[in-house]
Write a structure and sequence with these properties.
Length: 251
Amino acid sequence: MAKKLYLIGNLKMNMTRQEIEPYLDSVAEVANNANNVVGVCVPFVYLCMANKKLSNSKALYGVQNMNSKESGAYTGEISPKMLQDFGTKLVIIGHSERRQMYNETDASVNEKNKVALSYGYTPIMCFGETIDEREQGREFDRVRSQIELGIDGLTAEDVKRMIFAYEPIWAIGTGKTATSDQAQEIISFAKGIIAEKYGIKNEDIVMLYGGSLKPSNATDILSKKDIDGGLIGGACLKMEDFKSIIYTNVE
Ligand code: PEP
């Protein structure tokens, strides 16, 4: 039986209004015809448009970050409460670009996961090691601590509602992809940590791979046992490439 994959685009800080309008129309059309689950995380300014164009389609949509506070003197920030009015489903939390450039920590990731869940959103919690950590053989320790701290205080029901994304930092936007065996090895390890903590099964956990996923490597990576889909940056910007990944069919 074909595996139902989650294929979620992260637009990052890309696209003008003129570009994203037809793009979202295509996302709706492709999502309605695909056997896999399709999602897209847009810049905040396009959330209203995503709501108009995707809310009657099968596509899931959301954003790439949020503040954990409900309101207040936080100039330039967007609160979880504001996202409610736009049918938001997905919120990427702890993307490595935010951890590295905007000082997100495991503690803030944990807090945001809790808040996102309390609003009924699906956090897409990102984790992954740096190249130095991998070269020093510390990738498993790093992943363990990111997972343990990120889900601290959550229940089994909470983690079953989440999406996790293993994104080795050295593979994001670099063109270097983890091999399918490397991705499977870490994802199986990370699922094992969560499964053991809550007494649940690996199959109860949704975990994606992200990092230079593209049409040429999608089938190999996505066919691995514990990999439930992909978080896609660069390749989601070209609809033809995104579409080709979305139509991946693996057992
Ligand atoms: C990402 O930023 O989540 C990502 C996976 O990017 P890319 O596909 O460009 O490596």
